[in-house]
Amino acid sequence: MRVSLIHRGAIRCSAVALVTFVVASGAFAISDRQVARNFDAVEPAVCLVSYSSEVRNPNSGESSRRNTRALGLVVSAKGLVMVHGHMKLQDSEPFNIRVEIGKGDDTKSYGAKLLQKPADVNVCFLQIESKDALSLRHVKMSERKLSLGDEIMIVGMLGESLDYARASMLRRVGSILERPRRTYCIDERVPFGAVGGPVMNSAGEIVGVVGFDLTAQEGGDLYVRSGHPLVYQTKLLNDYIANPQSENEQDDAWLGVFTQPLTDDMAEYWGLPKEGGVIVASLVPGSPAISAGFQRGDVITEFNGAPIRARQNQEVLGFTKLVRETGVGEEVEVDFYRDGEPMTIGLTLAGRPKSANDAGEFESETFGITVRELTQDVRILMNLSEDTKGVIVRRVKPGSWAFLGGMRPGVIIMDFGGHPVTTPEEFQAAAAKVEEDKQKEVSVFCRVGSRTRFFRLEPRWGSATETP
Amino acid sequence: MKIYALSIALLLALLPGCMTMAGDSDARLVRAKNKVAPALVHIRPVKEVFRGGRRQEVSVLGSGFIISRDGYVVTNEHVAGESKLVRVVLFDKEEVDAEVVGTDKFTDIAVLKLKTQRTDLPVVDFELDRKLEAGQTVLALGSPHGLSRSVSKGIVSVTDRYLQDSGTMVSPYNTWIQTDAAINPGNSGGPLVNLRGKVVGVNARRLGGADNVGFAIPVGIAEEVWSDIIEHGRVERSWIGVTLQEMVSVTDDADREGVVIGDVDPLSPAFEAGVRPGDVMLSIDGSVTNARFEEDLPSVRKRLADFPVGEELTLGLMRASQTVSIEVVTEAKGDIKGREVELGGWGFTVTELTPAIVRRAQLPNRQGVFVSGTRVGGLAAVAGLRQGDIILRVDGEKVDTLSAFQEVYRDRIESKKPMVLLDVKRGAVTLYVLVKQGAAAPARSGD
Hints:
The complex is a heterodimer of chains A (468) and B (447).
Chain A: H1 2-23, H2 32-42, E1 46-56, E2 63-74, E3 80-84, E4 95-101, E5 108-116, E6 123-129, E7 151-157, E8 166-177, E9 183-186, E10 198-200, E11 206-211, E12 230-233, H3 234-242, E13 253-254, E14 257-261, H4 264-270, E15 278-283, H5 288-292, E16 299-303, E17 306-307, H6 313-326, E18 331-338, E19 341-348, E20 350-351, E21 361-364, E22 369-373, H7 376-381, E23 391-396, H8 401-404, E24 412-416, E25 419-420, H9 424-437, E26 442-448, E27 451-457
Antiparallel strand pairs in A: 1-2, 1-4, 2-3, 3-6, 4-5, 5-6, 7-8, 7-10, 8-9, 9-12, 10-11, 11-12, 13-20, 14-15, 15-16, 16-17, 16-18, 18-19, 21-22, 22-23, 23-24, 24-25, 24-26, 26-27
Chain B: H1 2-36, E1 40-51, E2 54-59, E3 62-66, E4 72-75, H2 77-80, E5 83-89, E6 95-104, E7 109-114, E8 125-126, E9 137-142, E10 150-161, E11 176-179, E12 191-194, E13 198-206, E14 214-218, H3 219-232, E15 238-239, E16 242-245, E17 259-264, H4 269-273, E18 280-284, E19 287-288, H5 297-306, E20 312-319, E21 322-329, E22 331-332, E23 340-343, E24 348-352, H6 355-360, E25 369-374, H7 379-383, E26 390-394, E27 397-398, H8 402-415, E28 419-426, E29 429-436
Parallel strand pairs in B: 8-13
Antiparallel strand pairs in B: 1-2, 1-3, 1-5, 3-4, 4-7, 5-6, 6-7, 9-10, 9-12, 10-11, 11-14, 12-13, 13-14, 15-22, 16-17, 17-18, 18-19, 18-20, 20-21, 23-24, 24-25, 25-26, 26-27, 26-28, 28-29
């Protein structure tokens, strides 16, 4: 199936290329004066984003840190920034994100957090973090369409040796893919610094940004190696710009249950109507569902007036979404069967507990270790009991004292240098105390898998706080 | 010219001497080999393995050596363990069947008994008196890649190598003799021999991807194990539920002696008695314990394991700069791997829960059975059961043991009950799995 898709795409491209030749002369062009005007209007919103990510060597298993820079586009006055989706890959989450806006002495640097990477377009949205209210120069996007052969202007960035100077480039729409969705292909390659840069039409409207590949959801892996520049059109981006949302919005409601669909077989087994529903298969300790009195094996058929009719796995997601979107603090009634008897429970929905992505982190540069709060989702993922207290090691800098002591990501620190640790703040305090006392040896008590063990770190305080 | 002539004369005078030395060395090697070779055997067990939800029988190859004139043979557990039928080829190429007398996974030793009336079989000698030294020449005898009666030569590289556990490949009670004598698949169970023609070790492992880094179980510990197996059919060990760590894992201070308690199993004798991680064990029943490096750990573990089951031990512990004494009553150490069975009707295999599985799965007790494999297209797999699941209940009834589960399973098969509901633990969550017996279409079930 995939092979045939590539094949079709290839034929269409070559056919379109022929047409390009014919229509090029009739397409819109951008005048020199327009180039200068466009550039002045857009340049202040083009910013430099720097971030770190962890790279694992597949051969040695060792991980090292990589610092990367990318072009960002400020899309709201309040500090919403759009970057190409390469920033967040499947197995690597960016951290230490900074956004530099402006040029020369007027450059301002802000910390930022990753808000979301939508599933249907390969970009990341960042939110600049600032104590003061922001009013940034930003771009407004237009949903105007392009035609084959139209001249387009891109604002990109030059490399480090050229101080990331902003640069304009003129290209044309070289071909148009109709599937999996209408996508403009740029006729020539663009420098890497242009990826994520705004794409303008002859009227100076920003009609999209430069992309490099499609999302996996739209079969992006077919095109990923083509390396052909594309335009991500505004209509794909506008909703996300208008309603910036964290992937882990804290005001999502939750019940704290793991559910399964009530298949017809399951209904027959329990003697229930074959009308679908969700079976409460597991309850999270301390969850609202437990407080409300739900039990394992309850079959929910109605939630807040809406019938629940899940018969297949994917239909359970609808129930999860319904609960999430009902809103924290809402009073709801839940109809369910228990041991074949219909019952109703009323409860007030609580907010979903913090997930690993929202969890607080602390990086000890002295020890070369970054720890994260032990959140409910990680507890479930790692099958940790409620009485396991500590912080989870997210990153260990190769060559650091923690690394040399044998510590690796995934280990849960419960005591650091004789100081019990249950939160990143406590870890920070413990690390500071150890440093202040110049402890020759730091005994670290950890959970590794299902067992506990000690690690010994040997800081070399003589070399100030430099790691070996 | 004179000097030149003198050199020639010297050379001629030395040459025969050199040749004699070389001849001596060869002769010693041959003599050593000849002492052991007649007792060397080639072993072809048919093992029972559980793979992909099925029980299968596979033929494997290994080596061994005869230790008694009436036909006791020593080999590796990983060669002869879980085998019903073992065919042994003697050095004179006579083929004899053997039965498995007993095995010990913790030291990788197995004992076979040849089914023969002979009482004049050649046997090996063991080197129990002289200490082995690195640099000493050794020979490895066995059947590398099935090539029986092979001899390879090397030296002892290290006498006490500590090898970390890897899955079910564990060696808590012994360090290893590391040698550069070529050891290949098939050498397992064969003897490592010194130049006196005496067995110093049982070849068992090699480092994959390396050139001639092989490992043998020291004969001292192997001999204790095979003696226990011959006498009792198994090795009984004590267990108190602590995981020990070497002192350097907490301090580099050579003056601080003891053994670090790194982990205590919940509900174990040590846990019940109040032993906690971070305690440093200074003595057992008044005699000092010390493990500065990891190589020192196996002997301490062995000391604990060698106590009779049910014995009350007094552990001298250092806790926050205070010495405390704690009495712990030992229990019998369980097997590393539980009994495994194939349940062909549903197309899956299950094993007993071991303490290790209970710990990993965070179960409150040892009730349930562990799904060790499912067959593609089998009823269990179609219902959504997966390898690693733990079955806790069948149709709402608790299943305590593997035998109890087998009984319920047999009942459901015989009664042809159309649907059977299993309560399954998968990671931190529990879920329902509905097995449709005789289902034509795949049943849907939660994941």
